[in-house]
Amino acid sequence: MFHRNYKQFGLLLTSLAVLVALLSVSGCDNEEASSADHPEDVVRFELVARSDVLTIGDGVNFEGFTFNGTMPGPQMVVREGDTVEITVVNEDSVTHGLSMHAANTFTSGYVGNIEAGETATLTFQADYPGVYMYHCAPGGHGIMTHTMGGQFGMLVVLPNEPYQMEQDLGREPDIEIFMIQHEVYRNGRDFFDGNAQYVMFNGETFRYVREPIQARPDDYIRFYFLNVGPNLTTTFHAVGGIWDYIYYGGNPNNRMYGTQSVVAGPTDSYVIDWQVPSEGYFTLVSHAFGTQAIKGAVGIIEAYEDNDRDVVVRSEGRSDGPLENPRRFVSPFGLGSEDIDYPVRLSPYDRHTIEMVGNSYYPKRVEIPVGTELTWINEDVFDMLEGELTGKHDVVIVSGTGDDFFSTELLDHAETVSYTFASPGTYEYICSIHPYMRGQVVVYDPATDGRAGFSGFQSDADPQLVSFSSPSGRQGSSPVISDLPPSSLDVRLSEATAHLYDTSPEAYENAMTQLAQVRQAFAIDPDVSDFFLRPDQLTFGAFCAF
Ligand SMILES: [Cu+2]
After folding, report:
1. Rounded Cα distance, 389 and 144, in Å
2. Which single residue of 36, 186, 222, 264 has CA 20 to 30 Å from 358?
3. 114: CA distance to ligand 1 center in Å?
4. How far, in Å, CA of 133 to CA of 142, rounded?
5. Which residue, 453, 495, 255, is CA-closest to 349?
């Protein structure tokens, strides 16, 4: 498959890149993408940002954000000197964006902060060969959380001059492996602490253990290796192998030879040329065993004479959608399955405080006896800007089987808000500006709950008063409380929000319709002065705090 002549090889890869570009264009006909008024050396890609549920292997589904429906997102390959045009289509209900590390220019001026439903384009000259990360960059706080949430991928700029391996040996690699290491977190607290739940290559734990990469002895394998992180530093190693040629960042000028591993912090990358030394199994690992390899960052190269081998292993995550009956559901911002976002039954001696951290509540599910005062504290530090760009948060009860309906003021960093629950029931709440953030409070009556651990606090607080405190002395003048009627409104609101992040157009339409109904219902309710809905983002504001 690979030609001896390097220029032919380059041409092949360039045409592959163009092919990928064409394939990645959806809703746009190929004729336009290749029409004569565009010079041939403009390579075009389209990234579609959205909310998604997908599988990350071994019975586990993951809910987050994606580009083009996979995590990692599309692999892009261009050639040094190419003009690259990347269009970002935001099909989601929240703001997204793009940071493209291969572009030595002010990218956020073009593709930062792309509102829901909007499209933006970045054009740049690929002047620096190498292996680059791209990731979502709506701006501010959202850059970090969306990258953790699954929006990232690899763009490779192939050099015009051959790598040292070609120069020394006069041959091209037999196999190319595009490999991204990345982490999955179950909540924002773990994200802050670097406590990954899973670590993986190309979107699935132990992906290439289940499906070993086939090779033959003496093959030259070229790795395009990228550590996306977003937190951990890896030491990439092949058991039974020594890397022959290493080019830091994938730039052919950054040469190293003969090492057991490469060290890569978040967004560090390499091109590695390695000759399979013999027959056998060669295990690819992050040699950070406890924090990474054991959590899924392991793969296998199976090398035997006459093996059938693919010449390219791509870095996209699986594209076959979520599992129908997953063992586990991981949702860093929302409510995952209860084995992972387990209900915490608070005792009198616990801290009755829920953190807002990394765009999630933590713990996400708590159980309290009626009469207990709960406090939320905003541990997100980035409290500048607004919307997706900020780490400000609030609490808005969107459904409940009891009578405690309220919304709070937006909290800056280290501010708190408290509420005393007076009515037993199961309540779900969201942050009005990050409505994919979800928490749950179960308020039980100790007299009737067989599992009751203690008989509850008899708080002196007025159960219908939210208290607000700011270390900076900010005046929480209006205690931002609304007595939403526990009528059918909350049920409908719950149904509507349950579909907010369903990606099917039908469900989206359904949610829109239900939201319109809810809005109408609120407007005619004399107890509620206003209900704020930003149609472009499907975002709930405080219910009557305006
Ligand atoms: Cu995003």
Report:
1. 10
2. 264
3. 9
4. 17
5. 453
First to last CA, the chain: 65
- So what's the pLDDT on residue 320? 92
Query: For the chain, how many residues are written?
Result: 546
Task: Give the pLDDT score at 60.
Answer: 98
Q: What pLDDT is recorded for position 21?
A: 40
Amino acid (1-letter code) at residue 386: E
| Tokens 């992906």 -> residue | 207
Average pLDDT over residues 37-59: 88
> Looking at this protein, which amino acid is placed at residue 470?
S
**Where exactly does CATH 2.60.40.420 map onto the chain?**
6-313, 343-540
The letter for the amino acid at 317 is G
Alpha-carbon span 517 to 507, nearest angstrom: 15
Per-residue confidence band for 536, with pLDDT thresholds at 50, 70 and 90 = very low
Of the candidates 113, 65, 72, 110, the one whose C-alpha atom is nearest the C-alpha of residue 92 is: 65
Let me know if 165 is exposed, middle or buried by CB neighbors in 10 A (0-12, 13-18, 19+): buried
> For residue 146, how far is its CA from the centre of ligand 1 (angstroms)?
5
Residue 147 Cα to ligand 1 midpoint, Å, equals 7
Q: How far is the CA of 43 from the centre of ligand 1 (A)?
A: 23
How many A from CA of 386 to the centre of ligand 1? 15
Between the CA of 373 and the centroid of ligand 1 the distance, in Å, is 35
pLDDT at residue 535 in the model: 31
**Which secondary structure element, helix H or strand E, spans residue 243, and what is its range?**
strand 243-248
CA 49 to centroid of ligand 1, rounded, Å: 7
282 Cα–ligand 1 center, Å: 36
Give the distance (Å) from ligand 1 centre to CA of residue 501: 14
Domain 343-540's class? mainly beta
DSSP string spanning 189-204?
HHHHHT--SEEEETTB
313 CA distance to ligand 1 middle (Å) = 26
Between the CA of 537 and the centroid of ligand 1 the distance, in Å, is 13
Pick the CATH number of 6-313 from 2.60.40.420, 2.160.20.10, 1.10.10.10, 3.40.50.2000: 2.60.40.420
User: What is the pTM for the complete model shown?
Assistant: 0.80
Return the exposure string of 419-443: e unless at least 16 CB atoms fall within 10 Å of the residue's CB, then b.
Answer: bbbbbbbebbbbbbbbbbbbbbbbb
* Residue 230 alpha carbon to ligand 1 centre in Å: 14
Position 322 confidence tier, pLDDT thresholds 50, 70, 90: very high
96: CA distance to ligand 1 center in Å? 4
CA pseudo-torsion sign 434, 435, 436, 439:
positive
Note the pLDDT tens digit of each residue in 13-27: 444 444 444 334 333
Task: Give the pLDDT confidence of 466-510 residue by residue, as tens digits.
Answer: 666 666 555 443 333 344 433 444 444 554 454 444 434 555 555
Q: Are 211 and 164 in contact (CB under 8 A)?
A: no
Neighbours of ion ligand 1 (CB under 5 A): 65, 96, 136, 146, 151
Percent with pLDDT over 90 in the chain: 73
